[in-house]
Design a protein that fits this description.
mainly beta, Jelly Rolls, 6-stranded antiparallel sheet, 7 helices, 14% helix
């Protein structure tokens, strides 16, 4: 039987009240008849939405089955020891055609206590932003729990939120506990812990298709919120062409931005982790063990931990891709 190879998965498309059609227009996603496609889950082990392989001899198998069979060969020995058969990260593209709700995620401890789940630390890479589009990350002042509650009760929550103008290439790291919201007109890539625990704090008094206000979770959120204040919420980073440039690193994941226009030789024998490429612009080919796999714009590919050396060949003048693994 041939060995493991770079795996592609069928995207899972989710219709959202705030979704649009940029996933199709800008990333070539074919989500069919969804008029408001808000999210494309590229790689997921969330129960009920587990990704299925779309290429090669493993096509039709889901991600959890593969981790169970291939264990450390797929995800890395240390990763498998820590997470077992649960793949630890969730990769998404999000199209905000309208403002998303203001929300917060609990940390591992609180999430385990309440939901028997992992917490949610995440990051965003902005692919496209309409002029004037905003992203909320954090608070615009230091508050006590009591002060925050007063603003919330008076319907003045937006007065205390920190907003940044969103631009293509912006990076936001959002640890669990930080209040956040994606504004209207933003298309982004999201990398997060495998968790679907979200506390919705404010939703602009929007009603769903049945005319009901969406549920808020303010009582639960109070224990989860980090009330501290930062001068800067946007992540500063620099990029060197034709090499992996780190943009975010935390205990849950490391994300590099890789812009390349020439052939690259990759050697990850020291890493002991899977690698995921979310391909934002251009096309490239991965060459490995006398085989190859072509990655189109908008596609996501999982390189197994056992594939420690491979080549990346650009098929367009420039390629821009996110490269994610666990250190």
């Amino acid at each position: 039987m041939p060995g493991l190879y770079p795996l592609k998965f069928k995207p899972i498309y989710l219709e959202k009240i705030w979704g649009g059609n940029r996933l199709n227009k800008m990333l070539g996603k074919d989500f069919g008849t969804h008029p408001n496609c808000g999210e494309s889950w590229e790689l997921s082990a969330v129960e009920g939405n587990v990704s299925e392989v779309s290429n090669g001899f493993l096509a039709g198998n889901n991600l959890t089955e593969l981790v169970e069979i291939y264990m450390g060969d797929l995800v890395g020995d240390k990763v498998f020891k820590k997470f077992g058969i649960e793949f630890p990260l969730l990769f998404k593209y999000i199209d905000a055609n309208d403002d998303l709700s203001v929300q917060v995620h609990p940390n591992d401890k609180l999430s385990k206590q309440r939901h028997n789940a992992y917490g949610k630390t995440e990051m965003w890479y902005v692919i496209h932003a309409e002029k004037g589009a905003l992203i909320n990350s954090g608070l615009n002042r230091k508050l006590t729990r009591e002060q925050y509650s007063e603003f919330l009760e008076q319907g003045r929550l937006q007065e205390i939120l920190h907003y940044d103008k969103a631009n293509s290439g912006d990076v936001f790291f959002i640890p669990s506990g930080r209040i956040h919201a994606i504004g209207k007109g933003v298309l982004l890539a999201e990398i997060q812990q495998t968790s679907d625990v979200t506390y919705r704090i404010f939703d602009y008094n929007r009603k769903d298709a049945q005319g009901n206000l969406r549920e808020l979770h303010n009582d639960l959120a109070l224990d989860a919120i980090d009330f501290s204040y930062l001068n800067e919420y946007k992540t500063k980073y620099s990029v060197k062409e034709n090499q992996s440039s780190e943009i975010v690193s935390c205990e849950y994941f490391t994300t590099n931005l890789l812009k390349f226009s020439e052939n690259l030789e990759k050697d990850y024998h020291y890493l002991d982790s899977f690698i995921v490429y979310m391909n934002l612009e251009g096309r490239f080919r991965i060459e490995f063990e006398n085989r190859e796999e072509t990655i189109e714009q908008g596609e996501t590919v999982l390189v197994p931990a056992s594939l420690e050396t491979f080549s990346m060949i650009p098929l367009t003048p420039e390629v821009k891709t996110l490269e994610v693994f666990i250190k």
